[in-house]
């Protein structure tokens, strides 16, 4: 119950309003507390709510290696560091570089590491910048091309190498484009035959739903339903499964 309380305080209670964006997110915890984490942070704090909606936003998803209270506590620590870093407004690759240097001692002491995908979005230009610390690359549905692009860039897990460098990426988004951020609890889910749900099934499921002009929340719910159908009835998740759907209106 302590672990569950830590995790519930880590994750946002609701999705913020970002201009021109339809957003949905959910974490389905496993039996044992995991270290899944996602967050939405405004890069401007001392402005009105209306102006904040059109300002730059950071969207992040991550996973601490291991389970239980230590994983939850580590993610709490990392969240605090990240929230302070976000306010600097630095590019994603620099933020991951600095975060790694700040957290390396604590992560090394705990013999754990963290995967993290960090992105920021500007509603005025519709540009998304990103960097990846070895997390599952989010899936971008490019509506104009009717295809999936993986948002990936070079980078080590956090807590493994002190002088690790991170590569930055940038993409122009357009109307009806959608991004699925997720943790490995989704793709690693297995059925009674021991088969993994894997990335290929997730891509197929996400592509199919994006062609149906659904809202983000509907896409999210239907992917979880697909996951349930795959795993079979009364089968417990071995790991937390978290997803965020970010869709341009």
Labels describing this entry:
249 residues, alpha+beta, 5-stranded antiparallel β-sheet, globular
What does this structure look like?
The chain is of the alpha+beta class and 249 residues long. Helices cover 35% and strands 26% of the residues. It has seven helices and ten strands. It has helices at residues 2-10, 49-54, 68-86, 92-110, 184-187, 198-210, 216-231, and strands at 21-28, 36-42, 57-64, 114-122, 127-133, 139-142, 147-150, 168-172, 178-182, 241-248. The strands form two sheets. The chain has a five-stranded antiparallel beta sheet. Strands 2-3-4-5-8 form a five-stranded antiparallel beta sheet. Strand 6 (139-142) and strand 7 form a beta hairpin. Helix 1 packs parallel to helix 3, helix 3 (68-86) runs antiparallel to helix 4 (92-110) and helix 6 packs antiparallel against helix 7 (216-231). The longest helix has 19 residues, at 68-86. The radius of gyration is 17 Å and the shape is globular. The relative contact order is 0.18. The model has no long low-confidence stretch (mean pLDDT 90).
